[in-house]
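REQUEST FORM: STRUCTURE PREDICTION
Request ID: SP-0412
Submitted by: Lab K.M.
Chain count: 1
Length (residues): 91
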Amino acid sequence: MSPRKERNKIPAHIVQGIRDKRKKLLHGPYSCPRCGLDRPRIGIDAKMKEVIAVCFCGLELKLDYVSAFEAIDYYNKCVDKFYKNGISHET
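STATUS: Completed
RESULT:
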């Protein structure tokens, strides 16, 4: 076992930075596959079983609601659907 000395510990500000980055990656902001800006919003309506991803550039994608999915999962589905359908990058 190594001794627990102050020089072996990671500074608190670095640990907090790692936590903040992890939260940012899980909860957004997400970049739009069409315009590349961090503007898309993912609206989840559990009662209507509907998910809508909307961006200010005009991109709008509708997905089916899955209770096990989180916002990042829906974002990945939207990006996959965007590139699979070959939606143009022009506005």
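NOTES: The beta strands are 41-45, 50-54, 60-64.
Reviewed by: T.R.
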